Amino acid sequence: MKVEYGQKDVLIYEHPIYQKDEQTGKQVRKGHIAILVGGFNKANPKRYMDKVVEEYAGENIYNEFIESFLDNPWMRVVTIGINEIEFKQYKGKVLKKII
Q1: Which of 16, 20, 48, 50 could form a disulfide with 42 if both were Cys (CB 3.0 to 4.6 A apart)?
Q2: DSSP 86
Q3: What is the pLDDT of residues 22-31, one digit of tens each?
Q4: Domain range for residue 47?
Q5: Would residue 97 count as lying in a domain?
Q6: Whole-model pTM above 0.85?
Q7: For residue 54, is it within any domain?
């Protein structure tokens, strides 16, 4: 199955992940996060979106996150380069209300 996610069937939002290089002090791109939504009119949206993610990631090593109740086969969150990110200790910070 060839996926044409450049068409209106699949929508994508991409956001790069940057971190400060400790040696140079410059912001360096480490990877990115993508949200893919599509396959609404497909008989098997899960299979379709599996293929979309596979083609989108290409040869890159990636992580894929699926909605926890598994009742939304139309949306996938993909991270590329997550193993390159320097994580910090979580200290109980609470996300402020955005909207």
Answers
A1: 48
A2: -
A3: 899 999 999 9
A4: 10-84
A5: no
A6: no
A7: yes
